[in-house]
Q: What sequence folds into this?
């Protein structure tokens, strides 16, 4: 499958009903939205990788991103090669984020495998725009789940960023901060204890975002199911 064929395939799968459903879940990007399900996008991604792969796959991903089609951008995150990402490419994509699902998919499928993006987490955490700032915390959550080589001390550094961002009232930032804290706290027993400490601090604060982030994280991290897995 080459570029034109991929675009035709995406266009053939347009589903207006799904677009309306996505909007109800807060997915309202400025880019074109076709309403294609994630399983279908992944299926297309697998077919493309089999037929293209390697350097061609990365070049194709960059081209798909520039289409400004919602599903094409998610597909780009599945096809790009993390080791080939440049800082300029990462910056361009992050600045183009306009929906929480694109942020999360790109972070979970691509950015969390790039050392460049990991180093840029503190920078992303300072961004003013909602989805750019969300990137930092979605990436923390993805790393907590996928990166087996990172040390506890690496994740401990993220707590200061989580604490600072916990006053942000914007929904897609607040939820990502909470997500990051919960995933780090589920990584192992040591990080669980530290994450619970921070959760307790946050839920005792005055602002609503801090109280919600701390309270929600505390409930999950101290739950029987999570504690059982950590033993």
A:
């Amino acid at each position: 499958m080459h570029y034109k064929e991929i675009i035709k395939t995406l266009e053939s799968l347009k589903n207006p009903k799904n677009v309306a459903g996505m909007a109800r879940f807060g997915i309202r990007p400025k880019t074109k939205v076709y309403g294609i399900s994630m399983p279908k996008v992944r299926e297309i991604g697998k077919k493309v990788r089999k037929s293209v792969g390697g350097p061609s796959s990365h070049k194709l991903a960059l081209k798909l991103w520039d289409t400004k089609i919602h599903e094409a951008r998610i597909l780009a995150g599945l096809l790009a090669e993390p080791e080939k990402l440049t800082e300029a490419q990462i910056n361009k994509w992050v600045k183009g984020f306009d929906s929480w699902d694109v942020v999360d998919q790109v972070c979970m499928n691509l950015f969390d495998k790039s050392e460049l993006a990991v180093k840029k987490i503190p920078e992303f955490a300072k961004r003013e725009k909602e989805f750019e700032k969300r990137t930092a915390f979605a990436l923390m959550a993805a790393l907590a789940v996928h990166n087996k080589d990172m040390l506890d001390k690496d994740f401990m550094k993220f707590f200061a960023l989580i604490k600072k961002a916990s006053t942000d009232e914007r929904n897609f930032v607040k939820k990502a901060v909470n997500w990051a804290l919960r995933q780090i706290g589920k990584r192992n027993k040591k990080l669980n204890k530290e994450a619970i400490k921070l959760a307790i601090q946050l839920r005792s604060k005055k602002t609503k975002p801090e109280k919600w982030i701390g309270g929600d994280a505390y409930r999950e991290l101290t739950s029987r199911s999570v504690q059982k897995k950590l033993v």
Summary: Residues 112 and 146 are 8 Å apart (CA to CA). Residues 130-146 form the longest helix (17 residues).
